[in-house]
Amino acid sequence: MAPLSEIALNPAMADRIQADWLVSAETKRVVDALGVARPGGSRFVGGCVRNSLMGRAVDDIDIATQLTPDQVILALDERGIRAIPTGIDHGTITAVVDHVPFEITTLRRDVETDGRRAVIAYTEDWFEDAQRRDFRLNALYAEPDGTIHDPTGGGLADAATGKVIFIGNADERLREDYLRILRFFRFNAWYGAGLDKDGLNACQRQKDGLKQIAAERIWKELEKLLRAPAPFEAITAMEKAGVLNAILPQATVSQSLERVQSRTSDSMVRLMALLPKDIEIAGSVAAQLKLSNQEAGRLSAWASGAFGEASDNRRLRSDSYVFGKRAVLDWLIVSCGDDVFQPAYTLLENWTVPKLPVRGQDLLELGISGPLIGDQLRAMEQLWIDSDFLMGRDELLNSLER
């Protein structure tokens, strides 16, 4: 975890945040528009407040407001700010100022939940809005001047210590949305200073609820978790709690993941470190998680490649040509020991996969036609690979004549 700011280390003094995003021209335009419509009725919430306290980068700016969605749209329109109804069914409007998005959501309370989605009602009560959120450190609010509000009474302390603790009863929060099980492990991987025992036990009890969650949402959370600086501890806890098996029964945590996390933050490579190198399993995982075509192709290329020794430079180059350079690099990261990893990886990273210097047109000019063109090209390609890609066009064509 990055060093916490002085303000976060002393929660008693953390009554205000200071950040560039808070005073930017784009932020001020949105805040002013909402403030005119309802003075004091809008506050920043969630990650932007949490990360500012913890000295982390802020990627998204979320605003909670007592204005209804219609009032938000009207307030933005009156100031010439683009308003997009990205989640209007749940009270969310996205304001865009000079390409900077602000997600603005009306204060809500849950009327009914089923573990996947909630029926909500609007409220003007900040405490009610806070109670429906997941973790205490995500229920911190900040006024436009940076003044912080901590309705749960534990968010500031959690931000200071890196604890991820559910608001109220953990089992109830999970039954409202079972995806919060994965969010618990994800936030621990990014921010956590040791997993909260009560939260971990609740995740273990409620893990079967993950069967109700769409595969796309599962992968989105798992991918974010795998991108954390050091996810090994959180993934290990997931496995012990039975959560990993509930979402990915093919996966097994091993020291491979611990080694890989020090080599790359690439979530796909870290996923590979959890799986056996098997083409059928790669296919089933891709289908189960509904990976994109690019992600599935990459997983398949790694799983199907019959790679040689990492210390054999000629074989590394030939494998990169045959199976794809990315597949061989993935294999090196996942499978190779420290003694051979770095030299082999550096070699391939700096090597450009060449193109066969002979084309079908060259054979046509020599009077070769039909299926023989393909046969001869494949034969010359193999000669070229065996030469460590050193044979040139003329030499390859001369070999054909011989």
What does this entry look like structurally?
The protein has helices at residues 6-9, 25-37, 47-54, 69-78, 126-131, 155-161, 170-176, 180-191, 197-206, 215-226, 232-240, 243-247, 255-261, 267-272, 279-289, 293-304, 313-323, 325-335, 338-349, 360-365, 371-386, 393-401; strands at residues 42-45, 61-65, 82-87, 92-97, 100-106, 108-113, 118-122, 141-142, 148-149. A hairpin with a 4-residue loop joins strand 6 and strand 7. The chain is elongated, with a radius of gyration of 27 Å. Helix 17 (313-323) packs across helix 18. With 402 residues, the protein is α+β, with helices and mostly antiparallel strands. Helix content is 51%, strand content 11%. A seven-stranded mixed sheet has the order 3-4-5-2-1-8-9. Strands 6-7 form a two-stranded antiparallel sheet. It contains 22 helices and nine strands. The termini are far apart.
- Terminal CA distance reads 65 Å
User: Given the structure, what is the number of helices?
Assistant: 22
Basic shape: elongated
> Biggest sheet, strands in spatial order?
3-4-5-2-1-8-9
The unreliable regions are 1-13
Q: How big a fraction of the residues is strand?
A: 5-15%
Number of strands: 9
Q: Class by helix and strand content?
A: alpha+beta
Largest sheet: 7 strands, mixed
The proportion of residues forming helix, as a percent range, comes to 40-55%
Radius of gyration: 27 Å
Quick check: average pLDDT?
92
Secondary-structure blueprint:
Blueprint: H1 6-9, H2 25-37, E1 42-45, H3 47-54, E2 61-65, H4 69-78, E3 82-87, E4 92-97, E5 100-106, E6 108-113, E7 118-122, H5 126-131, E8 141-142, E9 148-149, H6 155-161, H7 170-176, H8 180-191, H9 197-206, H10 215-226, H11 232-240, H12 243-247, H13 255-261, H14 267-272, H15 279-289, H16 293-304, H17 313-323, H18 325-335, H19 338-349, H20 360-365, H21 371-386, H22 393-401
Parallel strand pairs: 2-5
Antiparallel strand pairs: 1-2, 1-8, 3-4, 4-5, 6-7, 8-9
